Amino acid sequence: MAQSTQIYRRSFGASVGAGLKSLVGNGDKRYYILVHKVTTSYHKAGESQQIILDEIELGRDPKCQVRFDETFSTVSRRHAAIVRDGDNWKLIQLSKTNSTYLNGHRIESEWYLQNGDEIQLSTNGPKLGFIVPEGKSGTVGSIGLTNRLNLFGQQVLKPYKKALWACAAALAIVIVGGATALSVTHGKLKSEQAYREMAEEKWAAQQAEMEKSMAELAEKNSDVSKKLENSMSELSKLKNDIAEGVIPTVNSTADNRAIDAILPYVYYIHATGIELYLQDGSHKYAECGKDVPGWSGTGFLLSDGRFVTARHVIENWSYWLQGNKADEFMQTLNAVANNGGRVIAHFICASSSGDYFECTSSQFSMDRSQDELGQTENGYTLSLATDISADYAYINTGKSGGLDYDRRKSTSLDRGVRLVVLGFPFGLGAKSVNDIAPIYGNAIVATQGLEDGVILTTDTNYESGNSGGPALLADESGKLTVVGIVSASAGRNIGFIVPINSL
C-alpha cells in the first residue's frame, strides 16, 4: 500500500555509509536484484544487477546507479528511485514529465515493491524485474568480497567519479564540485514554482562554474601537451644522435660476475592479502588471487639495511588513476582508507639467495605530502598520488650487506649513460619463493641531470613488474652502484626513475 513518508532527496552520504557497511560490516544486511528486460548501451537483456545500497536512482543521468542511454528519450535524467524503508523497498517517482509503472499501473508518487514486481520507466520504456533472494542467499554476506568491492565501485564511486576528478595527460588534475543537494522545507518556499526557479538558478550557477573549471583545465592540458610534445621531440632527436654516434653511449662495463654479486639483494615482492578496517571497528582479511586481485613488483636491500621499492608497489590504491583510466578496485580501497577506515596490504619478499621476509604496507615510510585530495559536497574524500619523484617507500630491516648507492651521482648523470635495471617484469624470474632469478634490463639517460625531479630515460626496456627495482651505474671497474628506483614508463621506450637521493 502507498504510504506518505518524508520527501526523498538524493543522499550521497547515505549511499557511501550503506556501501561501506556492505563491504565488511553487517553480513545480514539484505540486497535485491534488478533484472534488465531490454538491451541498452549499458546492460543486455537478461543481465542482473545486485544492489547493495539503501537508495539508488534510475535514469539517464551519469550519477544514476541504473543508467539508460540517450536513445530512451522518454526516460528522464532522474526518473525514479528505489529506497530502503525498514525491511522493505519502495519505488519513488522523481520525473515531473514521464511516468513510472509498477506491474502496468502508473504510480503517483511512491509504492512498496514486492518480490517479482516489474518496473517500467514511461510508456513503452525499458522494463526491470525486481527480485529479492530468499534466506541467506539474500544477504550481502553471501556475496564474495571481490564482488562486493566491485559493486561498491560501480554503485557508489563510479556514478560520482566525474564530479570528483577531471583528469588529463600527465595527471593534470582539477577538482570539480558536484551538484550541491538542495535541502529546502516547505516553510521556506511558498510554492513548487519558487522551488523550481531556485533549483534552476542554482544549477545554472554550477554549470557556469563547471564550464569555467573545464576551460582552465583545457588551458592547463594544452600547456602540458605542448611540453610533452617538446620533450618527445627532444628524446627522438637524442635517440637519433645516439644511433648516429653524435652522442656516444657510455656503455656499462658490468659483466656477469658483477651482476651475479648483487642478485642476492634484489627481491621479488608479492602481495598476499589485504586487511580492511572500517570506522565502526569491523575487520576483514582477503587473500590476493583468491578473494581479491593481486599484484607484484621488485625491491632491493641497501648497504645501510633499508629495503627499498616504489610506493605504488606497496600502496597501490593511492595510484588508482593513471592518465584518465581508473582502477575501480583500487579506487574502492582508496575510499575506505580516506573515510575513517584503514587498508593494510601484506607482502612476501624473496631473493635468489633463499632469503625472504614478510611485511605490511603500514611498516613502510613514504611521502604522501604531495597527494591530491578530492572531496564531494558531503565530505566524501579520495586521494591520488601524482608526484613521480615521491614514488618510493622503504623500511629499516636491520639486515647486513646490501647494495652500495650514490646520492650525488643520482642527480647529475650525463646524457647517454647506460643504466642496468634488474627486476621481475610481469613476474618473470619468480617461479616460486625458492626459485628467484631477477631479469636483466637497461636504459639510457635521456637528459643531463634530473627532469622534474626524476631521471628520464630512453631506449628503456623494462616493463610492469620492474617497478621498485634498482637502476644501477657501473664504474670503470664494472662495480655496480644504485642511483635510482624504477618507477614508470611511457610509450614504448621512455622511462622514469626516482633518484636514490630522494630517500
Quick overview:
The protein has eight helices and 33 strands.
Describe the structure.
The chain has 503 residues and is of the alpha+beta class. It folds into two domains: 12-143, Tumour Suppressor Smad4 (Sandwich); 256-502, Thrombin, subunit H, CATH 2.40.10.120. The chain is 22% helix and 30% strand. It contains eight helices and 33 strands. The strands form eight sheets. Strands 14, 15, 16, 17, 20, 21, 22 and 25 form an eight-stranded antiparallel β-sheet that branches. β16 (296-301) and β17 (306-309) form a beta hairpin. The longest helix has 53 residues, at 192-244. Mean pLDDT is 79; it is low at 1-6 and 163-196.
Helix and strand arrangement:
Blueprint: H1 12-24, E1 32-36, E2 48-51, E3 55-59, E4 66-67, E5 80-85, E6 88-93, E7 100-102, E8 105-106, E9 110-112, E10 118-121, E11 127-131, H2 145-157, H3 161-164, E12 166-167, E13 173-174, H4 192-244, H5 256-262, E14 266-277, E15 283-287, E16 296-301, E17 306-309, H6 311-314, E18 321-322, E19 325-326, H7 328-338, E20 342-351, E21 356-360, E22 365-366, E23 372-375, E24 381-384, E25 393-396, H8 407-410, E26 418-423, E27 430-432, E28 435-436, E29 439-445, E30 455-458, E31 470-474, E32 480-490, E33 494-499
